[in-house]
User: Which sequence fits this backbone?
């Protein structure tokens, strides 16, 4: 977080992009949920980037 604060003039925050990834989880775990449309257990992650595509943050598997 300190790095983002010190270099914030280099970021273009006029537009933010929020994206997600849904990945099959073969080994299970406490964050795994069943997706009926995929008939498999999956993990979801969220990603936040600036308008240039620079990754700012990502979530833990949800």
Assistant:
């Amino acid at each position: 977080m300190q790095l983002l604060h010190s270099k914030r003039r280099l970021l273009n925050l006029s537009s933010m992009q929020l994206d997600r990834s849904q990945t099959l989880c073969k080994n299970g775990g406490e964050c795994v949920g069943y997706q009926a449309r995929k008939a498999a257990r999956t993990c979801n992650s969220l990603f936040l980037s600036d308008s240039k595509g620079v990754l700012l943050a990502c979530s833990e598997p949800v």
Q: What stands out?
A: The chain is about 10% helix and 40% strand. The first strand starts at residue 17 and ends at 24. The mean pLDDT is 77.
